[in-house]
Amino acid sequence: MPVDLTLKVNGREVTAAVEPRTLLVNFLRDELRLTGTHIGCDTAQCGACTVHLDGRAVKACNVLALQAQGAEVLTIEGVAAADGTLHPMQAAFRDHHGLQCGYCTPGMVLSALDLVARHPEPTREQIREELDGNLCRCTGYHNIVTAIEAGAKTMRS
Amino acid sequence: MYEFQYQRATTIGDALDRLSGSADGRYLAGGQTLLAAMKLRLAAPSDLVDLAAIPELHGVCMDGDTVVISAMTTHAAVATSPEVQRAIPALAGLAAGIGDRMVRNMGTIGGSIANNDPAADYPAAAVGLGATIVTHQRRIAAADFFTGMYETALQPGELLTSVWFPTPRRAGYAKFPNPASRYALVGVFVAQTAAGVRVAVTGAGPSVFRVPAMEAALDAAFTPEAVRGVHVPADELNSDMHASADYRAHLIGVMAGCAVEAALEKT
C-alpha cells in the first residue's frame, strides 16, 4: 500500500505516494527524473548512487525512499549553481581529468563534498581512504584524488 | 524485493506494539544489511518497523566509567563521539573501519549487534570489553548474547535499545579486512581490564569467540610477542573462497599481536 512521502530534494519540497519497497535511487530517477544519480552495482558497493541525506553521503540503492521522510536530499543536479555554473568540486574534476566515462562521477563528487565538509584540507591519503566506497573502473583514481585535492583548495579560498 | 508494509514508530512502546501486531515483521535500523538481504529475496518480512524516529534510541553518554551507546547510533557517530574517543579509542577506531563512509553514515551499532554477522566488527568489541546488551526488558551479558552464526539471545519482538561498554585499562582492535567488503576476514579485539585480559575474535569462526590461551599469556606479559607464539587450532574455523581455516588460524595470532601493539600505543 503506498505511503505518503514528503522530503526536500535539492532545496525543493516534494510530496509523493510511494510503495514501501521503492528504493531512494529509484524514486529519484524514475519519479523525479533526476537521472544523474546512477545505478552501478545495485548492491551497495560501487557508490555510483551516492547522494546526501541530511548532509551525509549515503548509497541510495541501499536506502528506502521512505527512510528519507522529512529529510533533505542533495543529488548531483543540486550541486551546481542555479545558473549552471559548476561547483568548484565539479570544475576541479573537469580541470584535472578526474573522469573518463563519467559513470562514477556523480557519486565521486558527492562523496568528495561529504569529505571536505569534515576535512576542509584533506591529505591525499585521507582522500584515498575516504573513497573506498566509490569504485571507478577507468581512471585508476590518480586524477580523481588530484581533482578532490584541488576542489577542496578552491572551496577554502 | 517482495512487498511489505512500512511502519514508522515514534516511541519504544509504539515499536513493540507495531511489531507484535504484524504477521512476520522486522525492526528496521539503518538497513545496510537487511535491505540488501531483502533485495536478494533472502529476507521477506511482512512489515518493517522503522526505528529512526525514536529519539531515545539515538546518542552516546557516560554512566560513570561506562560508555552507553544507544542502538540507533550510526557507526560514523560512534567513530567521532568525544565520549567514545576519550574512554575507549579502540572502539572509535573499530567503528571508523566498518564498511565504507556511506555505510557508516546509515548503519547502526544496534543493527549490527542484533544481526550478529560472523564477520562483523562490533561483536568482537562487545565480547572483548565485557559489554552489556540492553533490551526493552532485560540486560544480557555480551558473553551470553552471541549464540551462533546470525543468532543471538534476542527473543522474537525483543528490541535492543543500547549497548553498555565498561572502560578498560587499555584496548586495541586489529582486523584483516576483506578488500572488497571490508568485513573482517579476521578481527581481534584485545582489552586489559580490572578483571584480566580478554581476547575476542570475529570473522574466523561461526560467531565471535574468546581465546583463553592468549588471555593467559597476556595476563602474564602484555606484549605482542606473548600472543604471537600461541597456537590456535583451525578445526572449528571458517573455510571459504576468501581464506582457508588454517590461514584464518594463522591470522588470529598476527592480528592479536597487532591489537596488543595498538593497545600499547593508545595508552
Globally, the shape of chain B reads globular
Helix content of chain A: 25-40%
Q: What's the arrangement of strands in the largest beta sheet of chain A? A: 2-1-5-3-4
CATH architecture of the largest domain in chain B: 2-Layer Sandwich
Structural class of chain A: alpha+beta
Largest interface (C-beta under 8 Å): A-B, 29 and 28 residues
User: What is the ordering of alpha helices and beta strands of chain A?
Assistant: EEHEEEHHHH
Task: Give the total of beta strands of chain B.
Answer: 14
CATH topology of the largest domain in chain B: Uridine Diphospho-n-acetylenolpyruvylglucosamine Reductase, domain 3
- Count of distinct strands of chain A: 5
Largest sheet of chain B, in brief, is: 5 strands, antiparallel
- CATH homologous superfamily of the largest domain in chain A, by name? Beta-grasp domain
- Report the top-level CATH class of the largest domain in chain A: Alpha Beta
- Count of DSSP H/I helices of chain B: 12
The neighbouring-strand order within the major sheet of chain B is 4-5-10-6-7
* Tally of domains of chain B: 2
Strand/helix succession of chain B:
EHEHEEEHHHHHHEEHEEEEEEEHHH
Helices and strands in order:
The complex is a heterodimer of chains A (157) and B (267).
Chain A: E1 3-9, E2 12-18, H1 24-31, E3 50-53, E4 56-59, E5 72-74, H2 88-95, H3 105-118, H4 124-130, H5 142-156
Parallel strand pairs in A: 1-5
Antiparallel strand pairs in A: 1-2, 3-4, 3-5
Helix pairs in contact in A: 2-5
Chain B: E1 5-8, H1 12-20, E2 26-28, H2 34-39, E3 47-50, E4 60-63, E5 66-70, H3 75-80, H4 82-87, H5 89-96, H6 101-106, H7 109-115, H8 122-129, E6 132-135, E7 139-141, H9 142-145, E8 146-148, E9 151-152, E10 160-166, E11 170-177, E12 184-193, E13 196-202, E14 209-210, H10 212-220, H11 224-228, H12 245-265
Parallel strand pairs in B: 1-3, 2-3
Antiparallel strand pairs in B: 4-5, 5-10, 6-7, 6-10, 8-9, 11-12, 12-13, 13-14
Short description:
Chain A has 157 residues and is of the alpha+beta class. Chain A contains 5 helices and 5 strands.
